[in-house]
């Protein structure tokens, strides 16, 4: 059955949820999205790239707004097809992808079909494989193969943000601390040097660490440094000669990646640990002072800091202000009980319609 | 080729090493040991039990001395057949089992064939599967199936002790400490409670722990408390809600197992950790004041504390004074480079001959 882009975006969300699209198996959904865009929108160039669908206008507007959402979901957990319940604050739509992020996709598809004269040029990207390893990410593929499609003055990712504009993102750096010792039989422990015991001062510094809170471009960021893995031990009767601890530092976007690494090293300074950086990604400043972004914030009535690392950073790295803005509580993403308030789907639709048309919305 | 029990016990050691007998594959060696005991000793009742061989006299002596050694070895590591080299302090015999413990077996077999009129009744037990999980231990099987064979006034295990009498043994107790927390995304670490960080004070107490040194029955024991395993972590971007630490306490035999457990709990008192005992075995007091044991100590010129847990404890649990006494440096056991000084095989043979005959030995 073809998708109806022009009806209620909550109904469209339900229709999208009812077509399973676990990562790498997005083809049936991508086919329907492509067909619907070709049939139900005007003035869009539509392109297919693998399991991604791209569409854009060329109206010659001063600014271009990019709307992007991934079509894939995590594996289904007995939560497809969608169903509706009545909650204390209104109707809820339940099912895999209702939050992450078929409700966001539905809003974008609905706007593409129903905003007749946008005041900005529009680019829509519906992509694949966001929920699996970064190397497979469809937006990454588009960035490599069709980079001109990412040109925009502001990018809006429809990731769940509970109906708030979330801007920028934290950076992340992971380090591995390795403690070394001397192996011995635990019956003669004084002949050895216990590498697990050597982690004591490291863990104490982590436990005592005071995380910084800082305002960047009007958004407040709170940092955090967390042990995320510890491992050590040879056998139940052996003093171990090695132990390792993985630490993840999430930092505000006023630090560069290099400055963040330096900060982590300074925290463990003087403990004689081998500290190796295993992974890192820079943060992104909110960048909400750019005109196209400021307009969006005004339409939504404010913005808050984004904490997690999302595809927003790809745009930030290209100098494009980017925000997350979508229906649904991000804490419900990837859970069996994933659900979204229907009213939030309408609210996000209305805000974006106001932003794209410059006109007040008649509140249904 | 049959074993020659009457020649040089170093040659006999080499012959035993040249017949592979990795745990569970002791049958060919047990066959030869049984045949040699039947053919080359007088006055012994010889019994076969699986891959174990037992022999005992019934001379009506006041006291009975039990000599026990396991026939099995750890897996061969390119170190069979045996070979000899000349070291700075005399000849060395190399090969799998030269230390652990075919040299001890050879001494016992040689004495059984060459001590014509022992002043004590003798029991010999050559058993299987000592080097693998305790449930398969041949001495344990004999204890269950032929318990009267373990009756003795003193038991000598030929485990490598570098030619010293090693008496008693440490006890051991293992506990698992479990820290709990609250899981959260590491980008919002303040919403979680990091269970790995909660190990900081536990590791500090271990690092600061002062181990006791105590004399028991004339032997000095040194205790030790060691972290032997640490594990925690959910994913690289998650504040973990659980972490666990395994601690091994090796304690002097003046503490009971229950008292040792209580001591471990007191060390971690007040940290709010869940402490579970996962494994424990009591220590054994040296018990060298019993007459048959005191004679042996006199013959060897002294005794020292045994640290590791060995089959000695089985006898101690039955109220039988028991010691380890055998050629070879225990630190070389289970190593590719396992080797024993030939002179130590002779020395142990001479001391035990003096003990069993009550006569001075002509030093070859």
UniProtKB/TrEMBL annotation, chains A, B:
Q: Does the keyword Ribosomal protein apply?
A: no
Q: Name one GO molecular function term.
A: succinyl-diaminopimelate desuccinylase activity
Key words, A-Z: Hydrolase, Metal-binding, Zinc
EC number(s) per entry: 3.5.1.18
State whether keyword Disulfide bond applies: no
Tell me which SUPFAM superfamilies the record gives: Bacterial exopeptidase dimerisation domain, Zn-dependent exopeptidases
Domain of life of the organism encoding this protein: Bacteria
Domain Peptidase M20 dimerisation: from-to ranges: 171-269
Enzyme class of the recorded protein, top EC level: hydrolase
Names of required cofactors: Zn(2+)
What protein name does the entry list? Succinyl-diaminopimelate desuccinylase
Q: Please give the organism.
A: Skermania pinensis
Question: What would be the name of the gene that encodes this protein?
Answer: dapE
